[in-house]
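Q: Hi! First time doing this. I have a protein sequence and I read that you can turn it into a structure. Is that right? Here it is:
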Amino acid sequence: MSQIEKYQGIIPAFYACYDEAGAISPERVRALTEYFIQKGVKGLYVGGSSGECIYQSVEERKLVLENVMEANKGRVTIIAHVACNNTEDSKALAAHAESLGVDAIASIPPIYFHLPEKAIAAYWNDISSAAPNTDFIIYNIPQLAGVALTLPLLREMKKNPKMVGVKNSSMPTQDIQLWRDEGVFVFNGPDEQLISGLVMGACGGIGGTYGAMPELFLKLWEKLNAGELEAAREIQNECCRIIYALCEHGNLYAIIKGVLKVRGVEVGNTRKPMPGLTAEDQPLVEKCVGMIDAAIAKFC
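A: Yes, that's right. Below is the predicted 3D structure, encoded as structure tokens:
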């Protein structure tokens, strides 16, 4: 498989899987991996925002990735987000990811302190050096990280031959064009604008709501690549309406986990301090399930 083929398509962001006591559940990690693969996705993005990475220890994150890889058995592309808020832990996760044979590692910039770009580049290059045989992907999500990727920073990172792309979760779609024009792969991040990002040149999408409705995003991808723009736009519009409903709770991951439970995939609740799913939220879960089912029946 060529490099572009490896990264081209619909890649759900993997959700944190806990048992009833709130610990990582290897069994549920493996089951969710299999669920996504059977849906036909191109790959999985493990250990990012949807994976609640900032609320997990290094050892917990290793455990998650180990079980994803065990279940996957090389069937789909695996991108492991390895960033921690210090370099040594990030390097440890990068080295571990490479030892398991992931396709790529990814990293947000260091958060909290607003570091100069030379320090951010050093951080990313240090992480990449711990996995010298593995592709490196920048994760640009300025609305949460507090730091935005710039052209000078990207051009500095291009000196690293393992840096191959950007997971771009900034809202302006023009950013996708900017990064793509620099000769790197770009993944669309905001799910609400997948169709726009693909038109602007993204090679695929990595999304936190894809897992709640993979059928719809896969169908959108199919229609757009078949040149059926109006059909793709109609699916995107319905996906946006569903996303807005998923966000009514204040923590979309809690509602998504409720949706998955209805689908027969138990992944537990969210981890504090994120607000978890309660009995009072079940009507919203059912509303979202109904919307998703209706859209699948209409478009798929």
